[in-house]
Amino acid sequence: MATTTPISPLAPAGFPELPAVDGVEFASGEAAVKYEGRKDVCLITLATGSSVAGTFTKSATRSANVLDCQRKLGGASDAGAAFFINSGNSNAFTGRAGEGSVKAISEAIANATGLPEDRIFTSSTGVIGERLPHEKITAKVADLAGSLDADGIEGAAQAIMTTDTFAKGATATVEIDGKPVKIAGIAKGSGMIAPDMATMLVYVFTDAKVSQPLLQEILSDLTDVTFNCITVDSDTSTSDTLLLGATGASGAEVTSKDGAFSDALKSVMLELAHLVVKDGEGATKFVEIQVTGAANDADAKTHGLAIANSPLVKTAVAGEDANWGRVVMAIGKSGAAADRDLLSIRFGDIVVAEKGWVAESYAEEQGAAYMKQDHLEIGVDLGLGDGKSTVWTCDLTHGYISINADYRS
Amino acid sequence: MATTTPISPLAPAGFPELPAVDGVEFASGEAAVKYEGRKDVCLITLATGSSVAGTFTKSATRSANVLDCQRKLGGASDAGAAFFINSGNSNAFTGRAGEGSVKAISEAIANATGLPEDRIFTSSTGVIGERLPHEKITAKVADLAGSLDADGIEGAAQAIMTTDTFAKGATATVEIDGKPVKIAGIAKGSGMIAPDMATMLVYVFTDAKVSQPLLQEILSDLTDVTFNCITVDSDTSTSDTLLLGATGASGAEVTSKDGAFSDALKSVMLELAHLVVKDGEGATKFVEIQVTGAANDADAKTHGLAIANSPLVKTAVAGEDANWGRVVMAIGKSGAAADRDLLSIRFGDIVVAEKGWVAESYAEEQGAAYMKQDHLEIGVDLGLGDGKSTVWTCDLTHGYISINADYRS
After folding, report:
1. Which of A99, A315, A317 to mutate to test the interface with B (most CBs of B within 10 A)?
2. Structural domains of chain B ordered from first start
3. Which of A74, A72, A87, A85 is nearest to A26 (CA)?
4. Is A188 annotated as contributing to ligand binding?
5. Residue B89 known to bind ligand
6. Minimal Cβ distance to B95: which of A127, A321, A355
7. A332, B96: Cβ pair inside 8 Å?
8. Which residues of chain A neighbour B310 with C-beta distances below 8 Å?
9. Could you tell me the pLDDT band of residue B61, with boundaries at 50, 70 and 90?
10. No. of H helices and E strands in chain B?
11. For chain A, how big is the Rg over CA atoms in Å?
12. ipTM above 0.85, yes or no
């Protein structure tokens, strides 16, 4: 599958230079979980004293790994921690056997690293409903533990890919109390591994010192305005996982959820979220939807996601059609408050509709010319209040159908 | 647009024989609202004493016609009524001008028929955001009123089409108190008229005698289990309208919402709903999703629609892939109660997953063979309670993308 899909036209020029984050080491390798000849496992260790926070899929049918991570979060941080990820098999909908696989992998990593088992956080992504061949993985754990490297993050970004068309990374640095603090993250998502659903996995590291409760609070707040504001096709994986590790090795302590650290972390999370959208299946356009003037922020997000998830809006974008009528339709169906006669809509800076009708100043040629760009903004003002939200999506193209319908495993 | 789309492979052999319903007359004609050389207007009159009930889109940005119909419903029925429909322009998001167009058309029909203006129910379907050229329509009203015909229902079914690939009709007869009662209905939907959203319009007629409040109660209940259980792409039109007229001309009175009349009406509504799905844009498969064992009926419908609206499920069906993993995913994301380890899933009679894992008896070849049919059943049992619901949808194919993205108006 992965090998047949060309690199997304929205991909950046290459993988970014990511700094080593003090206290974090990476190892990646080949375990042939499903495919031969590609990296499909990675081990990431975090030094003693690291805090770990996480956010996860809300799916009622989430995978054994997700349930295990949720159980382990919030534990004592003095022992350090490890993240382990395999691609090729999601260990989802594998019944009780799936829990056994998580246990077996966690034990193997605990043995190889000396970390307590309840500090081993695992993720799996790939085919669902097939037993995870965890023996292939546990056989490689000692090798991985022996090859940990502070500069190994790019290899980890490659190992977690499924049908992603490019590896995804982002970084930021920020000064706290005169000390430089690094943040670096990797993500995978919106590629598919046949025959199953896309899974988004994200791992972010920092050498800031942050207590676990504060780290979790920051992460949860920022997830709501970054990863929870992107959508490719409205479908939710059973395995979505975002883990954030803070080693404290910089000596700089974060004591408030508002400030330079959160701003920098948000920039990294947002960049990774945008990269996931830019690798959306079949995507040829990146679309930012800015909703303002809603009754409240929640309504704004509801409207934004209704627009972003509408197949008719997404196919119009694919067809480079400035079809504001479909935007009106999506607002109307979202369930959040709207008044036709107060609504205004713009594409980029071009006002296309206002006061319940097409704008007098608008000419179809303007919209048609604007839609040829590969980064688009759709602005909606409800005219009702101060609620606002920004969400990001991609278009819906023949490529999406081809990836998900034409090729079978 | 309409002319370039081949007839749906799921279309029936032809338009059915529909009986004349006493007290109902039809006229259709060409007003060139948008396109020349095709029927695009129809007038339907209902005799004195007819009750009219309706259900409508819940869109917050619904059209001027829908708002007007909602205002007029429930009025005195002794004067008879008329339905008027035009295709080519939906009169949606046309601001105050849209209200003026509805008023102008209603007045013209009142003048031509002698009916009070508040008994004229109008619908418009087609391009949105463009002023309805209602002068073209009002100029034709006298002709229409002069050519009313009890046998004209097929012409009406043709006039309301936009990019529908076939005209849709259904009928049933039922005996009440020894008297034969006829029910006949027409529908349009799931075709698009570029550059706008699909609209579903449905008109059903009967010569039963039913009080307006009871007719409305029956219609609302049956809409929930028929038209509100179908989905093509999860998008909701600003114009969806279902009107039901009961002339009473048979002399047979319906006095209870349960009974033979409701059963027969349900069969007509369900058949029309299925025809709309079978004309879904790009559809090649008709899919019935049967959810049982949910905590309650509402949860069952939530799960059913989550499966029916999932792009990943719909592309799998298009690819003839018995991808039960995507069904699990859709159940997980729906928000309604589910327990992975109690879930079972079948495709037709083939049990593919049970107790949180692939069924031991299941072989991929069975599923692959089943998926080649063009009428499919996906069964889901949640194992939680007695809640159940059945919903209907179609697959998501390259045809959908082509209709909505490739061709521009």
Report:
1. A315
2. 2-278 (3.60.70.12), 286-406 (3.10.20.340)
3. A85
4. yes
5. no
6. A355
7. no
8. 234-235
9. confident
10. 11, 16
11. 22
12. no
